[in-house]
Amino acid sequence: MNTSLGGRVALVTGGNHGIGAATAEALAAEGVAVFITFLRLPDAEGGSGEQARGRYARIRAEASDEAARRIRDRGGRADAWEADLADPATIPDVFDRAEAALGPVDVLVNNADHCTADTFRPAEAVRGPSPGGMPMGPLTPESYDRHVAVNCRATALMMAEFARRHAARGASWGRIVNLSTDGAPVFPGEVSYGATKYAIESLSRSAAVELGPYGITVNVVSPGPIQTGYMTEEMEHRAILETPLGRLGEPADVADVIVLLVSERARWLTGQILYAGGGHRMI
């Protein structure tokens, strides 16, 4: 497939592991220069089970210099910067650094997110891990606000900054892809995560309407279960049984869908949600 992406510049958030890193490398393979942001996270946000928790914590604690290095080793252009997108002041800095390193940003992939497991149940009724295998606790102002800050506000501000710079330079071609989850409509045990991911879908549709006249398409990729290091063997087995295509999803499966959406082959797609989960969710 000719994606016609050679020479473009992409900004991929949350790119030190999993879907973000796979997306950065997939875009680079199409001739895109990639700027990666990341934020190393503590063990407290890992998956269930000692082995899975330890593995996932190590992965999420890595810097994304490795992904950028792999791209450069293959002859591509890439740079990376650690940034906490929950701080609104960081958003313009991210674009400034991307432009200084690689040039004006044509493609924005909002992949970074925050996920801790919270529930409406009272503390004494909380039992076991969340569906995503994380330790679960009652919803608090802190747990809710952190989800909003990273998943909703940062995504909205990144899109607004992208659009502002796009219009200021008189550009006529742009792509935004935001990451949701196919559990967004209802996510018991991870209620703040699910709710803020659902909000991303609404933000994306509004952005698609408002930014279309500027030549910017805005779409959402909504993954099903993807093994990014957090899933135990039991969770893997359950996910395979629930997936019509009969295997576990991998980061590259989602990355390829993102590449499609930012390519010229998807030039007539905007305001859409693609469920990249092997049929785990269907409409």
Overview of this protein structure:
- It is globular, with a radius of gyration of 18 Å.
- The model is unreliable at 43-52 (pLDDT under 50).
- Helix 1 (18-29) packs across helix 8 (251-262) and helix 5 (141-168) packs parallel to helix 6 (191-211).
- It has a single domain (9-276), classed as 3-Layer(aba) Sandwich (Rossmann fold), CATH 3.40.50.
- Strand 7, helix 6 and strand 8 (216-223) form a beta-alpha-beta unit.
- 45% of the residues are buried.
- It has helices at 18-29, 50-60, 65-73, 90-102, 141-168, 191-211, 233-242, 251-262; strands spanning 9-12, 33-38, 78-82, 107-110, 117-119, 136-138, 174-179, 216-223, 273-276.
- It is α/β, with parallel strands linked by helices and 283 residues long.
CATH class: Alpha Beta
Label the structural class: alpha/beta
CATH-derived topology: Rossmann fold
How much strand content do the residues show?
Answer: 15-25%
| Overall average residue pLDDT | 92
CATH architecture classification: 3-Layer(aba) Sandwich
Number of distinct helices: 8
**Strand and helix order:** EHEHHEHEEEHEHEHHE
List keywords for this structure.
seven-stranded parallel sheet; Rossmann fold; 15% strand; globular; two-stranded parallel ribbon; single chain; 41% helix; 283 residues; alpha/beta
